[in-house]
Specification:
- This protein is of the alpha+beta class.
- It contains four helices and five strands.
- Strands 1, 2, 3, 4 and 5 form a five-stranded antiparallel sheet that branches.
- A hairpin with a 2-residue loop joins strand 1 (22-27) and strand 2 (30-44).
- 17% of the residues are buried.
Length: 132
Amino acid sequence: MKITTTVLFILFLLPSLRAQDELEVKMGDSTYTIKKYFLCFLKTGPDRTHDSLTAAKIQEGHLKHLNKLASDGVISIAGPFASKDEFRGIIIFNTKTKEEAEQYESEDPAVKSGRLIMEIREWWSMKGARLN
């Protein structure tokens, strides 16, 4: 219940968060720190005409790029969607600005080749949150 209340409180504060990267929220005896991240939706790009060998090389470069960003601490998590619609995957960037996230993702071989396009949104989450 505390988590739900905290999330609702955060949504109420969002308009005032634009200029901040982190915010502490006190709820009773607990203090929560929320942090701004950048959520990147990877979508099917306009150029899917590559032959299978070229597509495989692009995918290999895409995965190498993501692994480098992860090892450098630039991204918190990334992965593909199971469905085969226009939404192909997500990346959560741990950068200061949207422009910085856009720059990193524009260097991705899959984006450069046109196989993927990106849509990046500002996203808030509790700092240190993790998947189980």
